[in-house]
What we know:
The chain has 212 residues and is mostly helical. It has helices at 2-16, 18-28, 34-65, 70-90, 101-109, 114-123, 126-137, 143-165, 167-173, 176-205. The chain contains ten helices and no strands.
Amino acid sequence: MFDIWLTSLATFFATVGPVEAAVLFATLTSRIERRRSQRMAVKAVLIASSILFVFTLLGQPLLARLGVSIAALQTAGGVILGLIALDMIFAKPTSTFRLTPPEDEEAQATDDLAVFPMATPLLAGPGAMSAGILLASRTAGEPWHLVAVLLALAMVMALTLLLLLLAPEIARALGVTAQKVMMRVFGILLGAIAVQALFDGLAGSGLLAVRG
């Protein structure tokens, strides 16, 4: 159970990106009164948490009704997490934790950043949603293992809220170099998790023979 919790914690931390989200939030709310920006932070985390908990708990049954197997889910999840890991390792401009130019323009124009772009796609993005479904699928119907996954998600979202509330201080304390180092380290870890998920999916499909 501890292994599942630790893996889930690292996966959600890498895909949700609390530190990167806090730095971006500080930039987007630099001209907004502090109390109002903190209310936005709370709202964004509550919405993102709701989305991720729903996908973690109900994503797998929904896919099962659509005829998607666990092996297919693991393989697809591994590919998606692998692409995110590559973005993190090489710090590409198209990274998951950056906005596209049209998204950035819309974010600057809106009065409430909580729903867009903070809650989604930054916090509850495709990577985090896929991670939740993938991690839940690996619990093999064990209730306590699922509890470990949900606990890890709750802890990451609680940390995310704390960092968003302290976003201006976080942005000042962390330089660009420190942010990139952290992103690369967690990118390597996420890459290993993605490859393991890919192996599990291929093994479950019968395309890859796994030797014990």
